[in-house]
C-alpha cells in the first residue's frame, strides 16, 4: 500500500513540473510571437512559426 502512495506522489510531482514547464514555454512562445519586430535577426531565422 505504501508503495502505490509513493508512486502517486511522484507522479503528481512530475505532472506539476511538466505543467509548469509547458506554461513557461507557452508564455515564451507568446512573447516571441508578439515581439517579432524587436527580435534580433538570428532569432528570426531560428523561429519556426
UniProtKB/TrEMBL annotation:
InterPro entries noted in UniProt: AgrD
Name the chain's protein: Cyclic lactone autoinducer peptide
